[in-house]
Amino acid sequence: MIHFDRVAKRYSNGFEALKSVSFDIAAGEMVFLTGHSGAGKSTLLKLIMAMEQPSRGQVLVNGSNLNRLADRHIPLHRRQIGVVFQNHQLLFDRSVFDNVALPLVIAGFPPSDVGRRVRAALDKVGLLHKEARNPLELSGGEQQRVGIARAVVNKPKILLADEPTGNLDPELSAEIMELFRQFNEVGVTLLIASHDIELLRRQQKRVLALREGELLSDQVPTALHSDGAKGHRGHHE
Amino acid sequence: MSRARKAPLPTRAGARPKVTGVSDRARAWRQHHGRSARDSLRRLLVVPVRSTLTVLMLGIALALPALLYLALANVGQLSGHWASSHQMSAYLKAGARPAAVEALTATLRARPDVAAVTAISPEQGLAEFARQTGLTGALANVKNNPLPWVLLVQPVGTAPESLATLRDQLAAELVVDEVRLDMAWLTRLQAIMQLGQRFALGLGCLLGLGMLLAIGNTLRLAIENRREEILVVKLVGGTDAFVRRPFLYTGLWYGAGGGIWALVLTQLGLWLVSKPVAQLANSYGSQFTLQGLGAGETLILLMVALIIGWLGAWLAVGRHLRDIKPQ
Ligand SMILES: Nc1ncnc2c1ncn2[C@@H]1O[C@H](COP(=O)(O)OP(=O)(O)OP(=O)(O)O)[C@@H](O)[C@H]1O
Ligand SMILES: [Mg+2]
């Protein structure tokens, strides 16, 4: 589903944020991306979103080569990917409902469908009762969940999350991870950037570790907390 | 995995919910247009003073060339009056015999470029002169009438060249002493009118450019204010057209407001001068009345306003949206 082939990214200031990174994420996988600050996690996610172009190598998403993606097809490409950012990027000039509805309005869904889908997504993240509120009136965790609802309202095949639990307490983080697991169970491919080692250990999922722009390791962490061992699944590479 | 085909349209991806049909899509698209239009208007009305000032400025910039255009049109109408009522006076030689006068009158009447010929005998001329000057008593005793025969020739066309030809041919006639046709003022007036039209055009272009820049600048601020929103919209797959739409409607609203103000100001300007003009015309015994904007011209003014609003927005949005990319 997501395929990186010797991808390098050099920013215009000459800084090489990624150096020859290769990996493959199959459809329906849930993968974590970790590494120190500045390792290149966000850069990698931006490449998948076609927010940045690789300076070398190829990125393939759902079979299409992003190097060959015409500018006018970028919006359509992005519509098949849901994104959750740490700074959730909600719009404070409109209600929670309208925030979540945005991708549907953009994609041209008829209004009757929009209402149904938005409520389903809000229900999923447990915020159905707050649809009329302004996101400003919500707590950090709630805002994060609105962001997730917006990312999944379109039922994307791929969900990217950049530090989705960045400044949330452990309980909320666990809740959000549980949400991600549920999406994964219905077939969504997930790639989640996080430097929360504890959380990665508990999840027992495949982890791509970056260091200074290079792929350091690609494996499932050894279980320290045996309660998560049941979820251990083998992966190639 | 490494297929080198052209990227397939990702919308067809299997798991993605399908939008029901073309008509639904069209409906959603129309609805977004309606929503953008309403939303843009609402945003303008939230800051009424600023919007009014912008729109008023556009109105003034449009009203100026419109008024100038009207002034020219009115002068043109006036000069048309004069030109068509303009006639040549052919003064015949003293002692021209009535038979010769009659013959010349008949030849002239037969010409295609002559509409009418009136022959005024020396006696008639004297009587007229006496009536106009009030010297009836004094002139009644004049024995030796000094006035010649005069032929008033009404030409068909008003083109200076054809008038000149007629005059020259008339002057070449044996019995004709002198032909008076003051064409200099006509040519001069036409030159001035042409200058005025050029000036109006130039002024209109300059003001139009100024309006584009003003709208562009206003929209740059609007775009900057909605930067966050644009980023999010682009991030979740909004096309450029989608992002542009509300701003284009903002431009259209500005254009509409500017056009209406321009009409109001033009009417106001007309109303201000209409009284003095009527008095002036009256003092000359003329029926002349000022002409305002016709239905077609009103429509054109509004269209120009809308186009300028839209174009200004389009240029600004095209320039600034490129700079706003999700990072
Ligand atoms: N637009 C840019 N121009 C230049 N350099 C950039 C740009 N964006 C990122 N970088 C650099 O690239 C490197 C990788 O950045 P990136 O944001 O991918 O790191 P990260 O792994 O997400 O870090 P963090 O955990 O702090 O979010 C950093 O050193 C950063 O300074
Ligand atoms: Mg980052």
From TrEMBL, chain A:
Topology of the protein relative to the lipid bilayer: Peripheral membrane protein
Keyword Cell division (UniProt): yes
A GO term, aspect molecular function: ATP hydrolysis activity
NCBIfam families the UniProt entry points to: FtsE (TIGR02673)
Species of origin: Simiduia aestuariiviva
ABC transporter domain residues: 2-237
Keyword Metal-binding tagged: no
Family as reported in the entry's similarity comment: Belongs to the ABC transporter superfamily.
GO CC terms of this entry: plasma membrane
GO biological process: cell division
Subunit field text: Homodimer. Forms a membrane-associated complex with FtsX.
Domain of life: Bacteria
Protein name: Cell division ATP-binding protein FtsE
Gene3D superfamilies: P-loop containing nucleotide triphosphate hydrolases
Signal peptide boundaries: none
UniProtKB/TrEMBL annotation, chain B:
Disordered as annotated region, ranges: 1-34
Swiss-Prot/TrEMBL GO biological process terms: cell division
Location within or outside the cell: Cell inner membrane
Listed Gene3D superfamilies: 3.30.70.3040
Domain ABC3 transporter permease C-terminal residues, every copy: 205-319
UniProt membrane topology term: Multi-pass membrane protein
Subcellular location, principal: membrane
Cellular component terms (Gene Ontology): cell division site; plasma membrane
InterPro entries listed in its UniProt record: ABC3_permease_C, FtsX, FtsX_ECD, FtsX_proteobact-type
Alphabetically ordered keywords of this record: Cell cycle, Cell division, Cell inner membrane, Cell membrane, Membrane, Transmembrane, Transmembrane helix
Job description of the protein: Part of the ABC transporter FtsEX involved in cellular division.
Complex and partners: Forms a membrane-associated complex with FtsE.
The family this protein is said to belong to: Belongs to the ABC-4 integral membrane protein family. FtsX subfamily.
Protein name: Cell division protein FtsX
Organism name: Simiduia aestuariiviva
